[in-house]
Amino acid sequence: MQWDNPDRRYEDLIAAGTIPDIMLEDARRNTYRSIRRNKLEWDMTELVQKYNFDTGRLDPAWLRQSAGSSDGKLYSLPFEGSDYLLYYNKDIFNKFGVDYPKPGMTYDEAYELAKKLTRQEGEMTYKGFQQHPAYYLTYNQLAEPALDPEEDKASMVSGKWVRMVDNLRRFYDIPGNQFTTVKDFPQGRIAMAVDVEESMIGWMQNKDLNFDVTSVPVFPEAPEFKYQPYTVGAFITNQSKKKDLAFQVIQYLLSDEVQIERAKLGVSSPLINPAVRQAYGQGCRS
Question: Closest by alpha carbon to 229, among 240, 242, 216?
Answer without folding.
Answer: 216
